[in-house]
Every structure is written in C-alpha cells, then in structure tokens.
Write a structure and sequence with these properties.
7 helices, homodimer, alpha/beta, 220 residues
Amino acid sequence: MVAPVPEPTPLSLPPALMSAADRERARDARGFMPEAEGLLLHRAALAAAARGPMLEIGGYCGKSAIYLGCAARERDGVLFSVDHHRGSEENQPGQLYCDPEVVDPRSGRLDSLPHFRRTLEAAALEEWVIAIVGTSTLVSAHWRTALSLLFIDGGHTEEAAEADYAGFGRHLDSGGLLAIHDVFPDPADGGQAPYHVYLRALDDGLHEVAATGSMRVLRR
Amino acid sequence: MVAPVPEPTPLSLPPALMSAADRERARDARGFMPEAEGLLLHRAALAAAARGPMLEIGGYCGKSAIYLGCAARERDGVLFSVDHHRGSEENQPGQLYCDPEVVDPRSGRLDSLPHFRRTLEAAALEEWVIAIVGTSTLVSAHWRTALSLLFIDGGHTEEAAEADYAGFGRHLDSGGLLAIHDVFPDPADGGQAPYHVYLRALDDGLHEVAATGSMRVLRR
C-alpha cells in the first residue's frame, strides 16, 4: 500500500547562489545526491540560514555540506554536520554502496572523515561548517540549540531515521525547514524509512513546501 | 607582579580508573601534558562525568581526550572535544611547538584531526568522545548544553583563552568542575593567559579544589 502524497505547496525559495566552481565541486564530491536535489537543499538553506544554525545528519564525504555550507556562507550562518563517519549500513565493506577508497587501509573500517575534511577545505567552507563526529543519537541526547533547518540523510533503517527525526526535529524553530533525502513513496524506488519520517512529519503538522526527486522540504 | 595564589582546598577526587594499557596510550599520544597532570584531569572527570556532558577545548592529537574519555566510559558519560584541528599559534609550521608529522603534506597546513581520530580509535573511546571540528568561538556561540566539566586547553593567547572561558564557562552547572591547563603564576615558567583565566574564575566565585603541575581544577 502506498499512502497518498499531498500536493507540494509552492514556496518561493530564493534562487541558488553558488559559483560554477562550487557547483562543480559539489558534483565531483563523493556521495549520492543528484545536482537538482542538492540545489533545492541549497535554496532551502538560503531561506533558513540567517535565522539560526542548521544541522545535517549524514555528512559522509561532504557533498551535501557544500550545498548547505555555501548557503551558510552567503547568509552568515553555520552548518553543524553530524556523522560518526564510519558509514551507514549500506556503505560497509561488502555492501552495495561501499566505496573502497573510503575504507581506511590501516583498520579496514570505513572512514569518510578525511574525505569530508578535504571536501570542505577545497570549497573554503571550514569557517561555516562544523563537523560533529559521533552517532546522531548520542549527539541529539545532548543537543539544546534551536535549528533553522534540519536535513535528515543519516542511517536509512527505520530505527535510525525515526531516531534522527525524534532527536533533532523537536529543535526546529517555528518556521524552520525540515529537508529529508531519499523519500520514495513507492517501495519499488527505494527503502521506506525516510518516507515514513516524511509522513510522520506531515502528521506532526509540518507542511511540504518543495520537492525535487527524492528530496522533500517541509516547514514547521 | 605575581598575584598571590590561594591555597588549594583539598577535594577527595576518586582514584584513577585507567588500565595500564590506557595509561600507556595516553603517555604515547602526541601532546604536551605530563602524566601526573593527565591523571588529575582523569580523576576530576570521574567525579563529574555522571552528572552531564563534559567539554574540552583543544583536542589536538587526543592525549587529554584519553584521560577524560576513560572517565566518561567508566561513568556512562560523554566528552565533547572542540578543536578546529588546524593547530594553535605555537603549533604552526616554523613555530616552536610544530610537529612536522602533524602537517598535512597535501596542503602544508597543520591537521591534527587524523591523529586525534586514530588515538581515540586505538583506545576504543569513539563511543564516548565526540569531536566537534570548528573554532571554539563559533561553537560556543551556539552551545546551549549544561556541562559537568569544562577543560580549557585551547589557544593560549589572552584573547583566545578569555573567549573560551567566557563562551563555555557560563554553561558549567552548579558544582561543575573547571580544569585549566598551563597555569603558570610565574611568567618565567610560561605564558600568562591561562593563569589570567584562572584568576578570573576565582574572581567569579569558583574555588580551587586540586592542582598538579600546571593543571588546576576549580569548582563552581
């Protein structure tokens, strides 16, 4: 059964403010996000960043942090990027989305942190993007800061995605934006956990303001 | 002029709870902290960690994070370790405390983050220590979480040390512990900025509870 998807309410997000070089860096960064989705994320961040800090769950190698961080730089804002940088389930050695170049040869464990760091350095975004290296549940247990934007793109199990929404969604300020990646209403297109978070957010009274591909943006 | 130093009030900190292997790892980690000072820090953390999160400023290569993190692990606590990992003034290439092995050969810039990460991994402390990679002023501007212990060991300029105390000291809970490293009442022994922070904390009503070498522990 596929639940009906409400029609997106249009919101006039500002146009993207990324140089051709930054767009190219974002395209070239390792990760799993088509440019159109990244640019929507960037535009949502432009709308939010001046009001307070933004937070993403799932930094991986820094692709989405470029889209969000470029908006933080434009608006004198800041992005906190939460990731333990040991990879999600599907990134582990032997799994479908494992990139062998993201494995630490010393330990055989996945380590996306050096890639994340170099991506941010190359994009000159270190002043606007703060990496928080730890599990999202541990970080959210101690988080007390209101957020202007929350981007959920961490673990894609039901448990992980729900915990990310529960742990950080309550810190979204009134009018704050919730972006969710990999929302697939049809199970044939992908895992259902992000879609279930999306439905729960709608149920909590957030409303959808924009969508491109599997990226959904809701407002509280 | 050297201001008079109050006599430390004894506090019965618990005895250290570190294995011989962890103590050896801490001794071997790059950094600038004699073991006796590290063990005092560890004992202060044992006294504090169950009450709430701890935070250190100046993670560098993870030496102090072992002392603090082992206490967090014992007490089911957590340590946030704030550092931009680009080195303090005195760590920069060409300066007195620059370790060439902590310079990123790709960029020529100091990068202590890979060392910090490996130190924590080897000590099996990744679950209890969360690195926050950014400048302490930017992180403190958005920090809202009460702290059971604050350890100041970041930039040693007057401006940096004062900003660290001002930015995070206000989040110390009642009874919380403030540890300051490199406190040298005599200018002949070292820079004065940490000592000035120490005096300011006393002036703010904190009282000293323990001291070893240049490490001072105060209680709010």
